[in-house]
What we know:
heterodimer
Amino acid sequence: MARPKKAARAKAPAPGKRPPGVCVPWEEKEKEFPPMTGDQELVRRVWQDVDGLAYMYIWHCVLSF
Amino acid sequence: MAKDMEKLYAERFKRYVTAMRNEKPDRVPIRPFVAEFVATYAGYTCQQVTQDYEMAFAATRKCAADFDWDAVVPNMVYGWSGLTQAIGLKYYAVPGVDLSVNTGFQYKEPSEEDAFMKVDEYDALIADPTGFLFNVWLPRVSTDVRAPGEPNTFRNNLSFLKGGMAMLQYFMAFGTQVARLRQESGTVSAIAGMFKSPLDILADKLRGYINLCWDLMERPKKVRAACEALAPHLTHLAVTSADPTKNLPLGFWMHRTCTPFITREHFENIHWPTLKPMLQEVWKHGNQVLFYAEGKWGPHLARFAELPEGSIVFHCDRDDIFEVHRILGHKFCISGGVPNGLLSFGKPHEVRECCKKIIDGVARDGGYIMDSSAIVQNDAKIENMRAMTDATREYGVY
């Protein structure tokens, strides 16, 4: 059985710094999970994709509406 | 029929994109930014096309089917009030609610005392723009959203839920609208994606124009820092909303960052240095930006001429289009120039003469797209829009 893939730990953004495309950084959310039994990279990717929807929401409120 | 429409679409697409590349297509493309005009033509009120985007879509499709236009914006009455009401946004005046049923929707500036961003909040915005928007700005501009620390409410939760779902529904509906324009009338979608400058965001949505003027005089370094903080986010939005095929340009709504709304010094020291890198980044991704240059931008055309060749399409409103062509035409496609006042109050033969003069003066080497100077609202006469279309088809053949 293949070992679950572990995502490389990215450097957390500086306090107060939230880069484009991010509302709740993965580095913050990751700490809330128990040790993962499966594909951590998959969880990270989907978290960031959905988090990006919230980012899109607030920025389109100010940009488009 | 479907094959004919696909053939027509292909012709129009090629014509439109060729002109935007500043080359010579088979004839001058027509790409009117028709807003509430579509309501007039299709028999709707402004209230109807603003409150129900499906009515706006249907009205746009009817115009596209009946006029020989190469491209249109899928919905130029883009401020869907169903969404803004779901969020509870305070800065909209809506036809049929705040305005008469036949007045186009308006933005309401905050009063100087009641700005959506206070003068001592520049540092908070700069440190975390996204956090500031969620935690400070949105609670101020919405009747329903509560700031962190305030007691939560049912209406607060619903504002986020309904706002998010409504935005998703609306954005997804554009996909169907673009496809129907193509399939039903062979019409190209004029733009894809959204771009605004940081200084315009500060003026329009955060400080208000008058407060920003004070800030430019009294704390220009803060204003510049705020623009620099906003720029990566606005660039990210532009790049991620842009046409992945790199054919259609991003719409850049240029509001009040020209002289004399701001001084030449502020344009040179704050606006242009923070805007230019954004435009260069978008071009690096292969996407053009359509400068929808409302107002007069003559003093700044030389700066725009610094941009990479072909990276923008310059839409002319109140500038002298012949002067714009002289300064920018060797590098960029030009569009616009038919005054909205002429379309509203003139006679068809006057519109025809204007179109012919523009075509003769600006379009002979290609790189020109026929359009009105600014968005066409419900005061434009149908016969004048026909005259603009027919004149371009008659005179604008290469």
